[in-house]
Amino acid sequence: MSLVGTAAAVLWEYYEWVVEQISPQGMLVGYTDTVVDLFAGMCGSLVAGLLVLRWARRHTTPTRGAGQR
């Protein structure tokens, strides 16, 4: 899950770069903006991954071994 969020944050930074190249006055971004965006994307995906893991553990029933009744 964390990899998906990180990849989305990187794609967003590419988008910002392209927009800045096409219209430099339209978007004022810099190093700090990039780092904060990447950090927020990674933290958000980490929290989402932990929530999915917690949900999965609550909704998964343990299976019985062969021969147990």
What are the defining features of this structure?
single chain, 69 residues, mainly alpha, 2 helices
Explain the overall architecture:
- By secondary structure, this protein is mainly alpha-helical.
- The chain is built from two helices and no strands.
- 71% of the residues lie in helices and 0% in strands.
- The relative contact order is 0.17.
Short characterization:
71% of the residues lie in helices and 0% in strands.
Give the topology string: H per helix, E per strand: HH
Low-pLDDT segments: none
By oligomeric state, this entry counts as: single chain
The number of distinct helices, counting runs of at least 4 residues, comes to 2
Overall shape: it is rod-shaped
Q: How many strands? A: 0
Q: Specify the structural class.
A: mainly alpha
Largest sheet: none
Sheet-strand content, in percent, reads: under 5%
| Ends apart, CA distance between termini | 36 Å
Give the averaged pLDDT, no decimals: 83
Q: Give the radius of gyration.
A: 20 Å
- As a percent range, the share of helical residues equals over 70%
How would the blueprint of this fold be written?
Layout: H1 2-22, H2 31-58
